[in-house]
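Annotated sample (chain length 357).
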Amino acid sequence: MSKNEFIKGRGAQLNVSNKFEAQQHEFRDDFLNYCAAEGDEVQNNNTVLIDTFSKTIVNKVTSPDVGMEYSLNPYQGCEHGCIYCYARNSHEYWGYSAGLDFERKILVKRKAVELLEKKFRSRKWEAKPIILSGNTDCYQPIEKKLKITRQLLETFLKYKHPVGIITKNALLQRDMDILRELAEDDLVSVTLSVTSLSEETRRILEPRTASIKKRLETIEILSRANIPVNVMMAPIIPAINSHEIMPLAKEISERGALSLGYTIVRLNGAIAEIFTDWIKKTMPDRADKVLNQIKNIHGGNLNDSRFGTRMKGEGEFASQVAQQFKLARKKYFSDKERIKLNCKLHESFKDGQMKLF
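Output written by the structure step:
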């Protein structure tokens, strides 16, 4: 594949059809030839922000194998462009493609803080951990400018409410002042996604995320500040990062991480087409091997929606991965313990300040 055919700075290399749309479109060869002859871009690759005005902001998570009860996503779509991201399919509900649209059309929830305060002030609401980034990353690049996540964290602190954060962006370091205050009352835990120790692997899998060096540095900084930090190696992809489990576990443990979790890649919905197109362009020599091994993990399919097996897979490869993680945890994390977030303070701060009576 020539350099001209590859869209730099993006994960997906095409816009797949939206399954909810009655009409589909494609680029005709004569149009592509005309653009090439004139030196014009076939399509605009710039990121576009789209304001949305949701009526609620806290989502109840009903999936039994996700590990959270409530989530909050200030943004929909994610400029990080991780090729494997399960959240891509959610962009179709907004009328966009799970491919390039997911990375280029970012929906912004401008009233996120207002809605969160309304939730906290409700007499019916009882404090339970709310996870920022249950779907898309709350510290994706646009957060540097908009600071919605920072404002949300200030709100969690104001109401003394427990919050979890999942991210793969070192921009989180900007908010260390708030995180320290939250950590003093066991109101925060951070989960950093570290898929590989190889910067080359990171660059092709997750083109607009923080470098591996910055993520490892972030683990160390959080740990030194007594802010509990955990790591997810997600997803494990056969023949791409599956050989890195033990060295990655050792590295993050030495940096101060309290635990290590994982998921195995699954390519549900439109992601199967997006990933297949991508790997044949970026790794043509091992594309078939990777795709076939993914199928072997999920009963002969690239996708897997079965609760209980979809996250970890099944078969010989999945068993080997599970054994490696069991060994890694025993060797590098046996003397560490995850904290339990404090849900007892919020009731006294229902109005954003301490109740005296």
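Annotation: The two ends are 70 Å apart (CA to CA).
Annotation: Strands lie at 48-52, 58-60, 70-72, 75-76, 105-109, 130-132, 163-167, 188-193, 229-236, 260-264.
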